[in-house]
UniProtKB/TrEMBL annotation:
SUPFAM superfamilies linked to this entry: Enolase C-terminal domain-like, Enolase N-terminal domain-like
Name used for this protein in its record: Enolase
Alphabetical list of InterPro entries matching this protein: Enolase-like_C_sf, Enolase-like_N, Enolase_C-like, Mandelate_racemase_C, Mandelate_racemase_N_dom, RHMD-like
Keywords: Magnesium, Metal-binding
One Pfam family hit: MR_MLE_N
Organism: Izhakiella australiensis
Chain segments annotated as coiled-coil in the UniProt record: none
Molecular function via GO: hydro-lyase activity; magnesium ion binding
Length: 387
């Protein structure tokens, strides 16, 4: 049995509302700069799926987290990785991962789109192996520590604070008693926002914060000290991701756990944060690491008694399903992220929806990732042209 075809689908899906809020239509460009996050976003939902087929007709689907210009991932897979994969065994995923990583390693491409593309292929190979063997991915990873995966609602995309408070309470009424609030509007404003959310959801709810890399060590330490009485579970991305020393200093000062990792793609990038005791909770994203590397990262974290809370933002069906399988299969899970608007769009591209209710993802029970892609709908959303 050999890999016979590798096909990519860079997608652009139009949601009712832009990710993190805002209008979708009526702009000169889909891409725009969000100053509060110092990052470029798309008003549409963009990603890249990959489909790997064997010569006997088995199929595996993967996905790279590529929220802008997903054509880059498609080009890398089509022109660089496909020749390495076609004619090879679908079971040799570790070998394939090494060859893909090595293919550009000595040119400095040890992160970014190159590794995102590897992640997509890796997820597809795990799905493919599961479909061939008639087993779910979590079983191939060694079994499930849990049959449902606890999650927190990520982001409260409303324009006004009062509306965000009401949205948090509505999620509570549906059984979701953990939420994450976006910060980065100045220390005093952030403190006021967190106090309002805590008052709205009560003391028993879990509350997490995402600072989107906006603060200095001094500002983040001030924020953490002020927020400790409010029972905050973690502060995510408080400093610039390159600042390992700053995170180490902040962790020593902060009474609140420090979380980070969505920008890192390999165990090599997580290693200095872990060894220098600069982090409490790791947040690798399977759409940037792949399943294999995320398992390596989780194992490394376990040796330092650290927990893993996988990042999950705008990834669609394969990303979400892969995240659930990995979250079930690691012993040191903290919690998985849940993005309700993205989750709804992801299910539109699946023949049977994934399920998340009462604060938990349900573990897919089918073979591989346990999802069936609606390929016709996928093809309708493919972006035209190349980058």
């Amino acid at each position: 049995m050999k890999i016979s075809n590798v096909e990519c689908f860079p997608l652009k899906v139009t949601p009712q509302q832009a990710y993190l809020g805002g209008s979708v239509e009526g702009h000169d460009s889909d891409y725009y700069y969000r100053p509060e996050y110092r990052c470029v976003y798309s008003r549409k939902m963009e990603t890249c799926l990959v489909k790997i087929t064997t010569d006997d007709g088995h199929i595996g689907w993967g996905e790279a987290l590529s929220p802008v210009v997903p054509q880059v991932v498609a080009q890398l897979i089509n022109h660089l990785f496909a020749p390495l994969l076609i004619g090879q065994s679908p079971f040799a995923s570790a070998v394939h991962n090494s060859r893909m990583y090595d293919s550009m390693r000595d040119r400095g491409n040890i992160t970014g789109y190159h590794v995102d593309a590897i992640a997509a292929v890796d997820i597809a190979l795990w799905d493919l192996k599961g479909n061939i063997l008639g087993q779910p991915v979590y079983q191939l990873l060694g079994g499930a520590y849990r049959q449902s995966v606890p999650c927190y609602v990520s982001g409260l995309p409303e324009a006004e604070l009062a509306q965000r408070c009401e949205l948090a309470k509505r999620w509570q009424q549906q059984g979701f008693n953990a939420v994450k609030l976006a910060l980065g509007y100045g220390v005093q404003q952030d403190i006021a926002n967190v106090r309002a959310i805590r008052a709205a959801i009560g003391e028993e709810a879990q509350l997490f914060l995402d600072a989107h890399w906006n603060y200095s060590v001094a500002q983040a330490a001030e924020l953490a000290q002020a927020l400790q009485p409010l029972g905050v579970g973690f502060i995510e991305a408080p400093l610039l991701p390159e600042d390992i020393a700053g995170h180490r200093e902040l962790r020593a000062k902060s009474p609140i756990a420090i979380a980070l990792g969505e920008t890192e793609r390999t165990r090599y990038q997580f290693k200095p944060f872990i060894e220098q005791r600069a982090v409490d909770i790791l947040q690798p994203d399977v759409g940037r690491t792949g399943i294999s590397e995320l398992m390596h990262i989780a194992s490394l974290a376990e040796t330092w008694n650290l927990q893993v809370a996988p990042h999950l933002s705008v990834g669609l069906g394969p990303c979400i399903a892969a995240s659930i399988h990995v979250a079930a299969a690691i012993p040191n899970l903290f919690m998985l992220e849940y993005q309700p608007p993205v989750f709804a769009i992801a299910n539109q591209l699946l023949k049977e929806p994934l399920t998340c209710t009462q604060g938990h993802y349900q573990l897919p029970q089918g073979n591989g990732l346990g999802i069936e892609i609606d390929e016709q709908r996928v093809r309708e959303s493919v972006m035209e042209g190349t980058c």
